[in-house]
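Homework help board

Subject: predicted structure for assignment chain

Our instructor gave us this sequence and asked us to write out the predicted structure in token form, then describe one feature. I got the tokens but I'm not sure how to describe them. Can anyone check?
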Amino acid sequence: MQKFLLIFLLFVYEISVSQVKIYSNEFMNIGVGARASAMSNSVLAFSDNSESAFWNPSGLVSSSNIFDISSMHSEYFSGISKYDFLSFSYKPNDSSSIAFSALRLGTDDILNTLELVDQYGNINYDRISKFSVADYGFLFSYSKKTKIQGLNIGANAKFIYRNQGDFASAYGFGFDISGIYVKDNWKFGATLRDASSTFNAWFFNEELLSETFLITGNELPENSVEITAPRLLSGFGRFFKLSGKINFYSEIDLDFTFDGKRNVLIKSNFFNIDPHLGIEISYLKIVYFRIGVGNFAIIPDFDKNVLNAQPTAGIGINYKNFRLDYALTNVGNIGAAPYSNYFSLGYSFDKFNRKLKED
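My token output:
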């Protein structure tokens, strides 16, 4: 309780003196699930399992199962950093659903050499220790069908914990609101992420850092507040039945940010629009092939501008309520970003699904 009160008072003080940062929590925008990664994160209008808690919580109530669990693991920079996600959803009745999700992006086993030199000036490698830098996000989600046919609404309460060993930590909170509308084979979705703005209060261990910072001539960091500004994610997609065995789904998403400082395809001084496209082809609703393209940007190249983009691809298997998905990003190595591999696993409790239908 005392820590919560301290965070609140620190936030009020920082706002009053305008010492806030407006860019933070970018780890919450990476995305989750190999299906979404294979489709360049173009799943906002169509996501109906526990991964919906991250993308569009309104989709949770569209699940045909009472219980669903999803997990994901991916690695960056040749395995130096790891990104993990776990979500569990529960549908108590046909008109509502809840979920709890957790994600972590972290780099572990970083060498701490602050104590490498002892008080006599001798180098002692036994004094080297290790620490982790990790970001955690926790989502509590709720989804509900409305009285309007085809319209679902949802919301997230999110809690943030960021840790940099014993040196610094941050605590944050915020909200998302969302909606999905289905009409025939068309799907429309939108999520206002960080609708309330998400606030992070940073606390630094000055006692641990002061001596080294003074010796090296660096300025000691101060406790501060970060603000994550709202962004609007929207998308629409359509199903096509190509044959009795093959189904086709395509979706176009548009991500709106309002700082006017992002190098995306559509930009201005007031807002930016980042479009991305995903396609999914299924065979017997068992095997899935997915491709996508996104991260469009105009890159200056001497006397001309070059359109840059990041393609993605992946496959999935859905058999007897088990889901196994794989995605490879930056297919063709377009741009400077290296390849990233995503794996995700999901399972739905079908025996409860039968009970729900009987009820």
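Reply (TA_rk): Your tokens look well-formed. For the description, you could write something like this. The mean pLDDT is 86. That's the kind of observation they're looking for.
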